[in-house]
């Protein structure tokens, strides 16, 4: 794998540098069937067992104060951020509620218009005349109509 230095050497190195030597190992005084050594195979690592069960951790009063300060400052910072973002969140929620109320108003106006259309259909003279024929209502004769005179000063007595 080429490194950045090797890549830069291609551009900055002089052209007169002789070619690299061959990477093939000479076989004159070595065993041709010998296996090459692994890297660091001569290094021996000794692992010693350490038992820390009897070790008691010493309390550090300064660390406890730092911890509580960090917790308190984190809560204060969170409260400050919430306090700063609360007005914008409130206006955002008010906008959503306003839009919901507008949609409800449009829906109610459409319901009102449909109810008014149904009312005009039900109260149309043609339908009322049809209902009168179905229920056998007849117009009274002109002599059967009694007009009430409301201009008289006489009290109207109810008959028992």
Keywords:
160 residues; mainly alpha; 3 helices; 51% helix
SSE blueprint:
Elements (H helix, E strand, L loop, with lengths): L3 H9 L48 H62 L2 H10 L26
Structural write-up:
This protein is mostly helical. Helix content is 51%, strand content 0%. It contains three helices and no strands. It has helices spanning 4-12, 61-122, 125-134. The longest helix is centred in the middle third of the chain and has 62 residues, at 61-122. It is elongated and about 150 Å long.
Order of helices and strands: HHH
* Average pLDDT figure: 83
Shape: elongated
Number of strands: 0
Care to give the gist of this entry?
The protein has 160 residues and is mainly alpha-helical. Helices cover 51% and strands 0% of the residues.
